[in-house]
Amino acid sequence: MSTLLESYTAGRWYAAPDEGRPLLDASTGEVVATISSTGLDLGAMVAYAREVGGPALRSLTFHERAGILKALAKHLGAGKDELYRLSACAGATERDAMVDVDGGIGTLFSYASKGTRELPNDTIVLDGRPEPLGKGGTFVGQHVFTSRPGVAVQINAFNFPAWGMLEKLAPAFLAGLPTIVKPASPTAYVAEALVRRVIESGLLPDGTLQLVAGSAGTLLDELGPQDSVAFTGSAHTANVLRAHPSVATGGVRLGVEADSLNCSILGPDVTADDPELDLFVKGVVTEMTVKAGQKCTAIRRVLVPAGMADTVVDAIAARLARVTVGDPRDAGVRMGPLASLAQRDEVRKAVEALRSSAEIVYGDPDRVEGVDGDAERGAFMAPVLLRARDGATEPHDVEPFGPVSTVLTYDGLDDAIALAARGRGSLVGSLVTHDPAVARTLTLGLTPWHGRILVLDRDDAAESTGHGSPLPVLVHGGPGRAGGGEELGGIRSVLHHMQRTAVQASPDMLTAITGRWTPGSDRREASVHPFRKSLADLRVGDTIASEPRTVTREDIDAFAALTGDTFYAHTDEEAAAANPLFGGIVAHGYLLVSLAAGLFVDPDPGPVLANFGVDNLRFLTPVKADDAIAVTLTVKEITPRTTADYGEVRWDAQVTNRHSEPVATYDVLTLVAKTWDA
Ligand code: NDP
Question: Which of 224, 271, 470, 534 is deepest in the core (most CB within 10 A)?
């Protein structure tokens, strides 16, 4: 008896009362599991996410959320066998499963790390600097990002059931949004097993991850203006979702990643003897065969100069001939079947459509020769390469979601760009060239139509992550036909989930609201030097204002001699006098910053453990010999580290001259102990 996949709702597993729809093994046709969401209370699910998951998540800081993601990544990494076994049922070879499962876990690690390093240990993100709005400095604007009290519904495609879930979950989780995941039915047994692993870890706060196994039913009806839907799948379903009243008029945000006729362009500089030709061919074959070409980023259009077409076709065909197709559980199989027989029918139909303006030059979509498996019950299909006739239109319109690519020829860079643009917006494009001028022209021509561009040549090939691999730190999504969505890209995708608001207020109010010191707001000068306070005692706004110190010509000479920085403006009276900005010898900027450190430091051992840098250093007014400088240092931001007994303190430093004019401004970054016994 096969297993009925269950949904996870409101803190418990739910089994539908009916038998459910069978999900078949892609190679053998045997039933792997059945699936049904009949009777699932979708309204209760959304309410649970909003009322239980969301508040729990938003009570944690970004660093605490990042810590959970890291622990989750470790937990999942420790038990992948079941996911690999189930991935094979979906037609995935071990390499395919690695992309899906390990790629997903890697994405969690990446977001955990970025969340800790690039977000504050807080629940609010400041976007840019304060904008002064009045001459008197009492009215200031500050953009902030805050979490929305909604739910993120994530509808995934069948091709990457693990990665697709984790790459959407991680940024939403960091952003403070609970997730309801709706995997594609054909491979939902992988997603369900993954959710079970996540839930059994006990790491996620209750209500922050729920699962719909089966049809999404009326899920979108339940959503409102604080909610979002992230969708990956067909353009057809994307359009259904776009037209849904919750999206069309109800304010639900929809992100779409739909089909994409990605291209790879061979530069006109590349000859048959260049290493770039081999890189180009390998790239095409990899994208045709990994995951049996069922990848939203796969190369569907191979653009080559007319004179290279025969060479390229022969080289691709020779490589494809070495690809063994079959059951991925059999050793030696390099390419598995498509996800289902229905999917194979779709791909065959797409090839048929392509044939109206292209010839098949390798493979046969209807005959599965050399396949290790039952071609009647398994969705096997050998790779198919086509070569387009002049003026072909179908390769720019039809997406064969399988191991299929079409070679097209171009005549000049403008033509290559125009052909690439006929895909009407793609996720990724590759340019294989060793000519910097070609790379610039093609890149600038292609960027308006692409979310990501890979420029590949002999110099970066060894480290290249490849055309088809979305990376957590880079944007994944593309304009136009590709859906117009944007996922990943590091913290960008976290901020996509949050609300940006411009707050206008006095500096004191902004400091109180943001928890970060706003220039112009109150400073507190205490009798205790702030370097003698641990994180437990230190407060935003704590300040030390130094006594003035005269900068002498001897200081400038000594600094020049010590450092070797004998730039004429610091050493040569005559030349410095002719400098239009200085009109005479001036102190080195770094001398001023060094003197300022001497003015604000408290020298004895104390809670300040280290100075680890300065940010945003600007020299504003030159300082001549015998002028005097003073420094004011104010606690701007306090970030305790969750995994250490110290934290970061960002100080606002203002160096002024005798006339109180700003000489230098910067942020000083220190590490300070959480507690300190004097
Ligand atoms: P679908 O668009 O049919 O399905 C994608 C997801 O949407 C699935 O989870 C599906 O659930 C869900 N879904 C379908 N209808 C609705 C609805 N009305 N409301 C809410 N959710 C819905 O794509 P397929 O997976 O069937 O793939 C079909 C084609 O899509 C492929 O052949 C390929 O061309 C393209 N595709 C593109 C991808 C890309 O990233 N660019 C990725 C995958 C596919 P369920 O499975 O339960 O129906």
Answer: 470
